[in-house]
Request: fold
Amino acid sequence: MKIYTHQGKWLALIISIFVLILCMLGSVLLGYTDTSIHTAIQAFSHPTGVFDQLVITEVRLPRALIGAAIGGALAVAGALMQALTRNPMASPDFIGVNAGASFFIVAAMMLFSVTSLEAFLWIGLVGSAVTSLAVYLLGSVGSGGLSPLKITLAGAATAMLFASMTQGLLVLDESALDQVMFWLAGSIEGRKLELLQLVVPYLTIGFLIALFLGKSINVLQMGEDVATGLGQKTWLVKLLGLVSIVLLAGSAVSVAGPISFIGVMVPHIVKGLVGNDYRWLVPFSITIGGIVLVLADLAARFVMMPEEVPVGVMTALIGIPFFLAVARRGVGKA
Amino acid sequence: MKTKRWLIIRRGKAERVSLLFEKRSVWMITIFSLLLIVTFLLAAGAGEVYVNPIEVGRVIFGMDANAFSKLVVESFRLPRMIVAVLVGTLLAISGSILQGVVRNPLASPDLLGITGGASVAVVMFLGMFSSPKTNALIVSIHWLPLIAICGALVAAFILYSLAWKNGLSPVRLVLMGIGVWALTKALTTLFMVKSVIYRASQANVWITGSVYGTNWDHVSVLVPVALLLILCIFLSVRQLNVQAFGEEIAVGLGGQVSKQRLWLLTLSTVTAGVAVAYGGGISFVGLMAPHIARRLVGSNYGALLPISALIGGFLVLLADTIGRTFFLPLEVPAGVFISILGAPYFIYLLIRERG
Reply:
């Protein structure tokens, strides 16, 4: 199902926005506590503080909004990373960015007993900047860069390194494990709306950069030499792309913890829909990323009712078949 | 034949039994064995209570020693260290076999998700069979290795069936392995989040890879199992050497290639499973040890296997000793140190490989 015409793409984008809103509505209404649309409307028009209304305004609404924003951010970060490394397997989680940011946050939490959310955000950003820069440099040493296989392996090794250092820290301090365990699994549950408000500026900047870069990335994808020949400052495009990745992935990880596979899965779905044109790929990644994460979060509520599965686990379970399919197909190119 | 590089032993009527050793390998094996023994003696003495190496030797050989140091060494340190060495050995052997069969120097049981499969099984086992009140296991701990082996086998089976497309392409195997690894990681997290916090922290220590809290019970199960596996593997050295030549030559030499491959992969998986059951998810040993060994003695498995086994044992013993002595009174799981060493080494291998 590929859409070729300009009008078709606009239409599809509008439809996907509607679907996203519909999913968010579903996320607000459905769950362990039964609520009707009537309660939802009342919760905003005549707030009385009844339990059902509180569930909607305090728990589910933030969750739906955070899900949509984080899903979009992760998907765009993945799409950009795939373009910059020219590697279909690249995504923030597979490159070890999530693990890196997690390590920085856990380390800060334990070594400097940082507890404020704002501080987490900054540390998460620094952590993802450091790791993505490291892997990016690693991926661009020499002339040919790393093959998809190698960058995947390098990412896995980096992730393993950070994961085991995080675990080492957690072993040293058992009480911290309790606090961070759910965060480490990746979840958008129980996050306050203020947390999202904190990252909104960074997310907006990240999204805007990504949207404006679309055209330049299309050129860059033709190859570094061609892009330079066409008069592009490739280093500037790459730098801006990297800034956008760090802002998006860093905010996502500091709000929700490491949520994997969205960044690998969504760009591939979108490519199937609108092709490899980054002017369209970025906006579609935002909406579809949001849809996937909100749906995964909904599924996470119902799979083991009344208990909840961390949404990071859910996205992994949905995304792994995808990853395997891409890997199986992409072997020829590796 | 030049006798300078080789050491030849011929015995029996008409010299029917003959053994061929490369002198260099013999030297290497001797050196590494000595290194391991010295480390072992020093490590047994290190810790909160210092015991000097001579005293340690006395305890080990049953001569009369100070009762207190005897207690410390015999009941706390020795079992743990024996398990550390064996776990390292098994992981290294498993990695060497895997790299030979898959013919990819980047393959190792942890990156392919095989140890991950064992981890999932063990975390499930700990969660399901422990009573919520006392936190004690309601079934015998001796089932643990069996469970881990089953987990490893299931993961390996999934991996091979996913990677199979007109034969087993090494590249596809590695990529699929990463997928399986991610899957096992997600499942372990799921089980950990769902279990009690005390269990979760225990499982956390275990997943990072630690030989903490082993006693002679563990040793009494592990030692015979490990010896049996090692025997099986050393009997398969010839097959391994043939496999390492590549498919065509292996067929040309008249081996039953796919049957042998299956047998060797099963051996490697079982070995990794046993190691995981006792040492947890210690990563990168299965990758590093064979590489270092290959640098030292080349890729003849007769020499490669013992050397990488010794190196593996040495690495885990060293990491565990550092983990339990440097941060007193706290303990850091051995897996942490090995990853800090192993991940950069792995990335270095990746970069170098391109050239």
